[in-house]
Design a protein that fits this description.
12 helices, nine-stranded antiparallel beta sheet, globular, binds adenosine monophosphate, about 30% helix, about 30% strand, alpha+beta, 18 strands
Length: about 375
């Protein structure tokens, strides 16, 4: 029986995992270097860096199971933890998702559609890749990219040298630019025994590389497209033997899907499930890693999630919108930082006011966004 869950990372994802674990009778402890980590609201903190092996060993020794809120956990840390406690998901899920090239190779090995790409290890290699793939294209570092960081769009062959320098001359991949109509994400949760639960895919809109809104179920996405998106995510989870929540981001072009990337964890585009699903992505992740039965995704209430970035709008103004639920991560404001989100839910089936109410919340969020 899992009573103690260790979490590597105590930002908002760790916070929402710990908040979901509490009603299940599961105590959480986490490692995070920040003395004001948000997960403190529901878990005890070991203040330490993610490469502080002694601290990670202490966490693992206390824990029945250890999970994480971000995929860039150093390999040495993974080894130290898995020598002392069950790590879920397993290191393989992390290792694949830490490297965009191995991620692409995994998708291809499963026959899933990806954008044309080439591995790039030098400025000359980039020139050759641009000749092969054409422009526009996007150069992305293989490791440690997030929220649009570590990537640059290339419009002409002459920009190659500058782009290579801009990403720091590190191993990268070049991707052909996908002319997409919209972006969606599929979230599945898989248990150790192979049972799984899938949420309806959400449509995601980004702003300056940061997720702005997620709308679930994705409006206008037909049933067969949604089913394919979920099947793709399930195939990835199955192949990895993944235990826990897994997110796959995809582009939609007409009736085609192109897989972009995977996150072996709870994801910002699944925050809507806190108020719009029968069991949230966080609770189901905890259930999965703790070896408990998964909860049903439904009933699903149509929801628009709006991120609060940079500065917090007035909470009373947000909550004055009916059907709005505020999730404040209690972080200090800073430009580009995710401080919270609001889930605006439909109040009845086919609620035509959802758009207007979500628009009102987005307006407040946009006015504060920096
Ligand atoms: P990523 O870090 O891979 O999620 O990329 C961040 C954002 O850049 C995506 O959400 C897309 O909006 C855009 N993007 C990334 N790759 C491509 C691509 N191959 N074609 C078009 N847009 C892309």
């Amino acid at each position: 029986v899992t009573k103690r869950l260790g979490i590597v990372g105590g930002g908002q994802l760790g916070r929402m995992l710990a908040l979901a674990a509490a009603p299940l009778g599961i105590e959480c402890r986490f490692v995070d270097p920040s003395p004001e980590a948000g997960a403190r609201v529901a878990a005890e903190q070991l203040v330490a860096a993610f490469d502080d092996l002694a601290a990670l060993e202490r966490l693992a020794e206390w824990s029945d199971v250890v999970t994480f809120e971000f995929e860039n956990v150093p390999a040495a840390a993974l080894a130290a933890i898995s020598a002392r406690a069950t790590l879920a998901p397993s290191p393989r899920s992390l290792e694949v998702s830490q490297d965009r090239l191995s991620e692409k190779q995994l998708f291809e090995s499963l026959g899933l559609p990806v954008a044309p790409y080439a591995a790039v290890d030098s400025s000359a290699g980039l020139e050759a890749a641009l000749t092969a793939l054409g422009v526009p294209a996007i150069l992305k570092t293989r490791r440690l990219g997030y929220d649009g960081k570590g990537q640059v769009r290339i419009e002409s062959q002459s920009q190659a040298a500058g782009a290579w320098e801009e990403i720091g001359g590190v191993p990268a991949i070049l991707e052909g630019f996908v002319e997409f109509d919209r972006e969606i994400s599929a979230i599945v949760v898989r248990s150790a025994g192979g049972a799984s639960v899938a949420y309806p895919p959400a449509e995601n809109v980004h702003r300056s590389g940061i997720l702005h809104t997620s709308h679930a179920p994705a409006p206008g996405a037909d049933e067969s497209l949604c089913k394919r998106a979920i099947d793709h995510a399930s195939a990835v989870a199955e192949e990895l033997g993944h235990v826990g929540t897994l997110t796959v981001e995809m582009f939609v072009s007409g009736d085609q899907l192109v897989i972009n990337e995977l996150a072996p964890r709870v994801h910002n585009s699944g925050h809507w499930t806190l108020d719009g699903a029968g069991t949230s992505q966080f609770e189901n992740h905890v259930r999965a890693v703790a070896g408990l039965p998964l909860g049903a995704a439904g009933p699903v209430t149509e929801t628009v999630m709006v991120n609060l970035v940079g500065a917090m709008p007035e909470p009373a103004a947000l909550l004055d919108v009916s059907g709005a639920h505020l999730h404040d991560y209690a972080k200090s404001p800073r430009p580009g930082r995710k401080l919270g989100h609001v889930n605006v839910v439909a109040l009845e089936a086919g609620d035509v006011t959802l758009g207007g109410r979500a628009g009102a919340v987005a307006g407040l969020a946009d006015a504060a966004w920096c």
